Amino acid sequence: MNRLWRSTLVIAMLAIPVSAFSEDLSTEKAKAKVEQVGQEVLKIASNESRSLKARRTELEKVFMREVDVAWIGRFVLGRQYRASTPEQQKRYEKLYAQFLVKHYTSKFSEYAGESFQVLSSEPMDGGDVMVHTQIVRQGQPPIIANYRLRKGDGGEARVNDIVIEGVSLLTTQRAEFASVVSRQGMDYLLDSLEKKIQEFDTAHNPADQ
I need a surface site. Which of 52, 54, 109, 179 has the fewest CB within 10 A? Predict the structure, then answer.
């Protein structure tokens, strides 16, 4: 690299504003984000003036806003996603988003009278932050729920893993999906996700609620 090119490169780099360089997500910002969303979720879930179906609909909106469902879906399927046809990938993305949202919101929508506490946070590899929380229940042990957050391209912090009582969403589903696809194929997994979604709708969204 000649002297003129080196000088040009240095000048160009100095001209880039500081904000153009992506900073890691801070532990305090991650804690504040989880605290805000956690209180929002419990407020929706405990609002008995609204029907259970309406509460679940609101929780689904919050979940889709705050959780990087698309990234999680691709990660848990791993190389099987890349080996799938474009049609299978499109169907999987749609079904997985519905499956994940309904699976978690069906649990949170039934909370009432609980309190949410953010305990601590710690930096993780790749600039992620793990936020440790608990849901305190009357007369029962607290539920330990940890959330791993990552800073997106737009600067927003979004959840990319959920760890309930020490069980990681990413780790568990990645193993389960890999086993299903290797033994029974991608189409079988897709049909299974569709069936589970229908079961969620039948069990958790009766017409009269």
Answer: 179
